């Protein structure tokens, strides 16, 4: 029986993408920790399901970014940032954390929007 050596799976991730993933992972965790340790009502509501689906989507998108594929993930990440910004307008919290979230997601939406446009034009060019 001969065993052939397979190439190692090693994705080279740019530094900016590592920082981006780390920041967005922390921004995803902090509101979850705040709601977990707050003394609010613990009933499961529609907002709980929405937040759970947002968390799952974030984890999927961030893992795709870590994997380095697929190339269309820039469109999904742009959509996630826009949806979060829209949802943030309905949240009644004020303070520096909300402002920080808003700033990070505006910059992220701008960056991924430009990358999504580049992907769109590259696909439809021929």
UniProtKB/TrEMBL annotation:
Transmembrane residue ranges: 46-65, 72-91, 103-121
Keywords, in A-Z order: Membrane, Transmembrane, Transmembrane helix
Protein's name in the database: Uncharacterized protein
Organism: Daphnia pulex
Lineage: Eukaryota, Metazoa, Ecdysozoa, Arthropoda, Crustacea
């Amino acid at each position: 029986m001969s065993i052939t050596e397979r190439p190692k799976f090693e994705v080279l991730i740019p530094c900016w993408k590592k920082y981006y993933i780390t920041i967005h992972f922390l921004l995803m965790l902090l509101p979850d920790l705040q709601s977990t340790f707050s003394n609010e009502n613990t009933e499961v509501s529609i907002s709980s399901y929405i937040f759970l689906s947002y968390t799952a989507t974030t984890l999927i998108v961030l893992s795709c970014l870590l994997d380095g594929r697929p190339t269309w993930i820039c469109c999904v990440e742009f959509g996630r940032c826009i949806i979060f910004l829209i949802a943030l307008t309905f949240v009644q919290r004020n303070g520096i954390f909300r402002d920080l979230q808003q700033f990070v997601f505006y910059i992220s939406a701008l960056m991924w929007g430009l990358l999504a446009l580049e992907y769109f034009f590259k696909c439809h060019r021929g």
